[in-house]
Amino acid sequence: MNVTELSEDDRAAVNSLRSAVMRLSRRLRHQRVDESLSPTEMSVLGTLARCGSATPGELARKEHVQPPSMTRIVAMLEAKDLVRRDPHPDDRRQVVVSQTEQAEAMLEESRRKRNVWLAQLTEGLTDDERAVLRAAAPVLEKLAQL
After folding, report:
1. Which of 33, 65, 122, 138 fits a disulfide with 110 by CB distance 3.0 to 4.6 angstroms?
2. What is the number of other CB atoms lying within 10 angstroms of the CB of residue 20?
3. pLDDT at 31
4. What residue spans of 1-146 are helical by DSSP H?
5. Is 146 exposed, middle or buried (0-12, 13-18, 19+ CB in 10 A)?
6. Cut 0.85: pTM above it
7. Percent of the chain with pLDDT over 90
8. Alpha-carbon distance values, 56 to 49, 69, 114, 132 (Å)
């Protein structure tokens, strides 16, 4: 569907959603536990947490970066003991990247901190607004997966 085919109300809603998601995302990024990691490094760790171990090429596709960039990112994360590289079980030319226990703990603490921050924000909402937010959460999750 083309955006011009949307009703005026739907176009306004899309514009409002885009703006709100961008601002909220920016504010969430400031709630990081480890300031030494770039947003891209955090994103790679999050992808590994969600999807499991992957080759650098698979990670590059999922993160929408070039393979040489992902190779550098993985090397930086490995130097920080946040990922490990193991031989690929079927292809000796490749490696499989996995997150370490240290990365799991850091991601869990990051999620906890961000959840606390978001929960505090919702205290400023009415009961009806919180109900709308609960109903919208699965829809926003679906949009994030498309």
Report:
1. 33
2. 10
3. 80
4. 8-29, 39-51, 56-63, 67-79, 101-122, 127-145
5. exposed
6. no
7. 70
8. 15, 10, 28, 39
